[in-house]
Amino acid sequence: MSYVIEIDGLHKHFGDVKAVNGISLKVKQGEIFGLLGPNGSGKTTTLSMLATLIKPTKGTAYVDGHDILKEPSRVRAAIGFVFQEPSSDDLLTGKENLYIHSLLYGVKVADLEKRIQEAFKLVDLTDRQNSIVRTYSGGMRRRLEIARGLMHQPKILFLDEPTLGLDPQTRDHLWKYIKKLSTERGVSVIITTHYMDEADVLCDRVGIISAGRIIATDTPANLKKSLGGDIITMKIKSPNTAAIRRLKYVKKVERSGDILRLTVKDSDLHLQELLKKIGKVESVEARSPSLNDVFIKYTGRNIEDNSAEGGWSQRMIQARSRNE
Amino acid sequence: MSELTGLYGMWYRELKVFMREKSRIFSSLLNPLMWLVVFGTGLGSAVSIQGANYQTFIFPGILVMTVLFTCIFFGAYIVLDKRIDFLKEVLVAPISRTTMFFGKALGGTTDAFIEVMILLALGVFFGIHYSVLSVLLTLLTMFIVAISVVSIGLIIGSFMNSTEGFGLIGGFVVFPLFFLSGALFPTNNLPSWLAAFVGVNPLSYAVDLLRGLLLNLHTYNLWLDFSVLVGFAVVMVVAGTLAFRRLKP
Ligand SMILES: Nc1ncnc2c1ncn2[C@@H]1O[C@H](COP(=O)(O)OP(=O)(O)OP(=O)(O)O)[C@@H](O)[C@H]1O
Ligand SMILES: [Mg+2]
């Protein structure tokens, strides 16, 4: 198996802040790897080091077989990057931005116009390509930047929260396209996100990152399986927890007030018996575990707790007012 | 090959931005025209220098001043690129830092050149007589000056993170270079302390050379002027490429 990305004990410290604190991981060719973690966990810093934008404090990585420290230009020739922050020139039109990108990233001049039009079509901006980027909406600008990152057809793609601020339809569309890139063209993708569904649906493997470390890596299905069962939530006044705990298939029992949360193996087979033993239930809900449950298991925190601040459009407004 | 298209891409972007902000062209021409029309006419009514009308006399110096201001402050666009994160897009591109530097530098040089062309055309109203040769040599000189000064601007810009900071440092560089270049006065009869300052300012040689080319008035040997300018350009361009090597997003 060939690995297109091998990260070996990567560290990045900003003064006292250990933004990345010893990450090692391998990504196979054609794989979509998700980095899932809350704000400030070191996702962007990791990608920036892989893309040779910043130098690691310690450790190194190989991208497309090239050491990021020794052969940064080889690395850059293999990658495409969709940045978390807006990075197009908002005085220029969408098309001018893509044109300049093609020139900088070595798109063959003969293919240029075709690629640009394909890119606009992909993100559904064809009719706005000649408008100045400053007049785009936040989501339109996001789409432009995605089109730009993909259009030179890199072997390896870094997508830093690419779908933040996109409507569900565009999001679906983009997921399909990324899947296609990986299966048909063998493009390898590292995508950061704090959307559970994105990690779940899109990624072949997910690394859960917290405070600069990767604390679990596996397929979404295996990560969820590692919880040992499904999640059953009940509203119940006086549960017979002692009886429940004795059952072999009950992996975990948590209670807060009226709410009882159980982790149960093969819940569909055992729900009947559970309900019989536990006593009178007001309501019950059984569901398969989500990656959020996995995140809670490993960190004791809810990933979505602090992820609302600093959305794409808000950051863009900040960037613009800095600019003026 | 890809370095060359990359270079073209960098340059194309600067040109597009410049063309889009038409006000930039007008405001950058306002300053030299004020000097020529107001200051030149005002002082010209009282003095003429070495047989030339004062307005005509300062014209070459005002050309240099225009290039100086445009090119130094062009460096502020690097700071803005950091702000809008466009710099990341450029830094991740598979082109060398040297290409990045030259793309930017040629962009700034082009901006300055557009202004110089307009001023040269207006020169006939300020008593300048051209020959084909003098125009070509003037343009060559302006190119050498522009690429040197834009390098200084880009070096400053590569170190700065705020436009305010850039304005401060830029002003600190621009004004001494302008006033000590002999743009506004003849340099052949200065007290020795001032002659020393003027003598170490590379732009004095640019003004002198242009005055030689356009008015046939000069203090230094024209080959000396030319050599100093080429040497200055080489040093600044090398320093600029080195500064870009350590440029961070
Ligand atoms: N240039 C910098 N200087 C100082 N500290 C930094 C710098 N860049 C990042 N950090 C710090 O490093 C930590 C990790 O930041 P990073 O941007 O990698 O997080 P992230 O996982 O991408 O978060 P988010 O989901 O908000 O994008 C944060 O604590 C951040 O404050
Ligand atoms: Mg980030």
Q: Oligomeric state of the chains?
A: heterodimer
Q: What is the end-to-end distance of chain B?
A: 26 Å
Write the H/E string of chain A, N to C. EEEHEEHEHHHEHEHEEHEHEEHEHH
What is the count of β-strands of chain B? Answer: 2
Total of DSSP H or I helical runs spanning 4+ residues of chain B: 11
Q: What portion of residues of chain B is helical?
A: over 70%
Structure description:
- The complex is a heterodimer of chains A (324) and B (249).
- With 324 residues, chain A is an alpha/beta fold.
- Chain A is 37% helix and 28% strand.
- In chain A, the strands form 3 sheets. In chain A, strands 6-7-8-3-9-10 form a 6-stranded mixed beta sheet, sandwiched between helices. A 4-stranded antiparallel beta sheet of chain A has the order 2-1-4-5, covered by helices on one side.
- In chain B, a hairpin with a 2-residue loop joins strand 1 (48-49) and strand 2.
- Chain B has 11 helices and 2 strands, in the order ααββααααααααα.
- Chain B starts with a helix and ends with a helix.
- In chain B, helix 3 packs across helix 10 (202-215), helix 4 packs across helix 7 (132-159) and helix 6 packs across helix 7.
- The longest helix of chain B is centred in the middle third of the chain and has 28 residues, at 132-159.
- The model of chain B has no long low-confidence stretch (mean pLDDT 94).
- Chain B has one domain.
- The interface between A and B is medium-sized, with 34 and 28 residues.
- The complex binds adenosine-5'-triphosphate and magnesium ion (MG).
- Adenosine-5'-triphosphate is lined by residues 14, 17, 19, 37, 39-45, 84 of chain A.
- Adenosine-5'-triphosphate binds at residues 14, 17, 19, 37, 39-45, 84 of chain A.
